[in-house]
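I am still getting used to backbone structure tokens and would like to learn alongside you. Would you supply a protein for us yourself, any chain you care to pick? Start from the sequence, derive the backbone structure tokens from it, and show both lines together. Go ahead whenever you are ready, and we will take it from there.
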Amino acid sequence: MGVPEVDTVVAGAGIAGLAAALELQGRGREVLVIDPADRPGGVMRTDHLAGFVIERGPNTALVKAPMRRFLDDRGLEAGLLPARPASRIRHVFRAGRMQRVPVSPLSMLTTPLLSARGKLRLLAEPFVRRGDARGESVAEFVGRRAGDEVVRGLVGPFLTGVYAGDEGQLGAEAVFGTAVELERRHGSLAFGALISSLSRRRERGLKGTWSGQHGFGPLARQLTNQLAEPPALGSRVERIARDGDAWRLDIVAPTGDMPLRARQIVLAVPAPVAAQALRGVDGEVASALQGIAYAPIVSAALGVDPKDARAHIRGFGFLVAREEQMRLLGCLFMSQIFPGRAPAGSELLQCMLGGVRWPDAVAQPDEVLLAALRDDLERTLGYRGEPLVLGLARWARAIPQPGRDHGERVRFARERLPRGLALAGSYVMGIGVADALASGLEAAASLSRP
């Protein structure tokens, strides 16, 4: 018997892989999706327990233009759920107390997160000489443009929540690419943002923060249901090699290892997994991808009685500044952000541990993690109750950490890959749900070009 053949294989059933598969299917391709998990969606996993809607992976998303168009084309935009207006209230725990994050120019001038000197330095940004952000970290770029206080008081905590990373190691071009481009074109972030808002007309996404009506997991299942063939779950791509005018894949499946032949492949998996599969194709590409680090995260879902907390549980949640030296990175008030996330009289807190501050958190037993949570929630929220523990989700490779040379690594890998291979995932175009989806669309487009 010959080796089974398929036109296109997509390795990975996360949002990037599903987007690539559906886009290629819409272009008339026969597509097989392969994923080692027990359900599609990748890190987009939602559980419904005791009246709570619990996200094990991403909790919120920005709906950028490509994502909005993609969902609308498939009849799914109406299934998105907007965050409540009160979710615009966000806090940083710093200097031993909750401090509200400024969201407007006026609030930036009145925030206690910056001293008077820090505010004057920020106001001077338009007059700072143009620099070169190539090779700079986020801390170096923002410090040069807006001052070190902005780095410590605003940017550092923000990156803790988004990347669970270190602003001194994350690359400016990869993380703040739009801001870097504004400096290159206009010499100032403030002037550049103003000019861009007045002169550029483009397709827009949806304003604000979003989720699915019943969470991201059900949204992933809705997308999966539009595939002509269901994903091959519990299976993974071990190796890829050239096979004449096509590619041979060695698949590890529950029923045993098997070969598969495909004309095209999308690797919508974490960078180290893609590196392992590509070692027999191009060692230099594999090395470039292997060098992309990931931050581990433990996501803890807790049901709490708000009366047991001294502080009000309202708004989006809070992040913890690095100088507080706490195990807790931050907490989202999910039942405040979206309706229907908790039973009446209860609040759902989604707390984050780990990251670069506590990389061993994913290996700790539950009792150690919960003890750290209790201590830090008492310190931040004055919470002294006994929470309902709704689960701890451990992600050893939760969030890519794009360093100073991240852009060069990704560009090198994508440009050097032989024809018929494409990369997608949260390390390619950005870590958000919308950016990962867009990377899948771009991978499908690259495979469809003549």
The CA atoms of residues 205 and 441 lie 16 Å apart. The mean pLDDT is 95.
